[in-house]
User: Fold this.
Amino acid sequence: MTTGSRSIAQPRRRSLGQRNRRRLTLTFKVALAVAIVFFALFPVAYVVSAALNPLNTLVNAGLIPTRASFENFERLFTSPFHPWPRWIVNSVIVASLTSIIVVTLTSVAAYSFSRFRYRGRRAGLIALVLVQLFPNMLAIVALFLLLQAIGSVVPQLGLNSLGGLILIYSGGALGFNTWLMKAYFDTVPYDLDESALVDGATHIQVFRHVVLPLVRPILAVIGILSFIAAYSDFLLPRVLLTSTESYTLAVGMTLFIRGQYTQEWGVFAAAALVGAVPIMITFLALQRQLIGGLARGGVKG
Assistant:
């Protein structure tokens, strides 16, 4: 009886020990998730608090404002000294056109590198990598002089123009994005191309009607990344744009706090919150292509 009771008790102890370990593991995961969410959302909560604080300052400001109001948002849209609506329109124009140009050019280049074999193909791929090895800051002087020369012929693409900024962003984003898109194009079976060509389709028709529908997730990824990079960049617009009316959002927002670090933080926080709306809209517009394509890829894998 003693031996039998021990043999029954041992599995129970093991089961109890496994259950306790699972509970501890689950508790640790939940605590870690809560800590990560708190760490990620605390800055957002502080920005929201500063935007709703009518005192328009960070001095003695708490996480929960005592007299919350939308006064800072009203000042943001009605201030005659800071054309903030114009800045956000400029940023949306630059980011949207940049993302469209980058997606278009990189998809064509990636299709060429992925599907065709020709002289100079390998050298072209290596050149794209070498260009990306140098930091963008090293090229600021060259870009400034380049736009200055172009502006003497085409003012719409010169200094202090949104067209010149779009030109620089589009050219600078081709290298890495072409490699990224080419790797995705390589996963599409070439048998589909051959079948379409046998049926009489041209390479342009194969690219448009066969390959592009299958690579929509990477198109969405590059579109989102290009939009965010151009929309939130500060350095190039600060160097290439000189007039207040042509400023983008990132450059214009610095005017709220330049030289008066405790007087305009509320308006600055309100501008940051409203300025994030175009990025959210872009992501929501493209998430069906992105998440749906990744889910299909995961199921397929």
Notes: Residues 2-72 form one domain. The chain has two domains: 2-72, 83-256. Residues 293-301 have pLDDT under 50 and may be disordered. The CA atoms of residues 52 and 60 lie 14 Å apart.
